[in-house]
Amino acid sequence: MNKSARDSLIFDRLAALAEPVRPRLMRVLERAELSVGELAKVMQLPQSTISRHLKTLSEAGWLSSRSEGTSSMHRLVLDDVDAPGRALWTTVREQLGASAELADDLNRLQAVLAERRNDTQTFFGRVAGEWDKVRDELFGDRATLLALLPLIPHEWTVVDLGCGTGNAAEVLAPCVSRVIAVDQSEAMLSAARKRLAGSTNVEFVVGDLERLPLADASVDAAVCVLVLHHIPHPEAAVIEMARVLRPGGVVLIVDMVEHDRQMYKQQMGHRWMGFGVPQIIRMLTDAGLSSPRINLLPATADAKGPGLLACTARKARPGVIGAEIPGPGGLPSR
Prior knowledge:
Elements: H1 3-16, H2 21-31, E1 34-35, H3 36-43, H4 47-59, E2 64-68, E3 71-75, H5 83-96, H6 100-127, H7 131-139, H8 143-148, E4 157-161, H9 167-172, E5 178-183, H10 186-195, E6 202-206, E7 219-225, H11 234-244, E8 245-256, H12 263-268, H13 277-286, E9 289-297, E10 308-315
Parallel strand pairs: 4-5, 4-7, 5-6, 7-8
Antiparallel strand pairs: 1-3, 2-3, 8-10, 9-10
């Protein structure tokens, strides 16, 4: 910037401060970022007057502004002003001193900020009972669950057993290094391939869950979602899960709890009418897996099927023996 331009900028800034209300505005905006409406309350002036003064100060390079919804928020940040401007404002501010008028401005500023906090608290107090609905409307009902998926170590290889059309693999693929989707049905694998056409880290394998075509200790996690009740010998499938796990790896089984809906056998080919907690625990521990943990999943209002359970267990690392004993309700005791 040449000398004449610098001189012009200084004169513009001096001219912007010539109106007494503008240094008052700047003193307030040094302390808080405020909207035009909030500044009108602090300064006790019409919003149109405040807007005019803000325009002058902004054009002189004193203020920064940003949009927030339908409002504009304004702030004086000295770090955003060049050195001559900072020196000029420091001099003007010292000359203003601590007048009663400035003290009143700052008192009203505290009241406006308190009102802002109360508005936020009032909003959450009003919607607390409906917050899940509000959040679902804003972000969808899967946002929280999907946001938790990055907790899975990204370097993992996960096998999706009985992958079906690939709904579980689709969720897992963006979060891990590799997904192996296994199913004995070529038709299901074809549907899964189509669904996951854009995923480059998914491998599709035809295979029987009781005799998995995978090497020992080749995966970090084995996922079996609503498949075990279709398998003639589920205990054999769990043994296979344990075999392909690396030490420290985890099994996740999601299936139906015991039920009496005989029609599922005729209509959907179910081999088992769900599983009891002791039965699942026994299959896991008999397969050599440790630390079994069972969660009974809450039913949603529109669910028509039996209740579900989710259980996890780990393959012990060398030198680690023993398993947690399930406590009341199927959860491991502490």
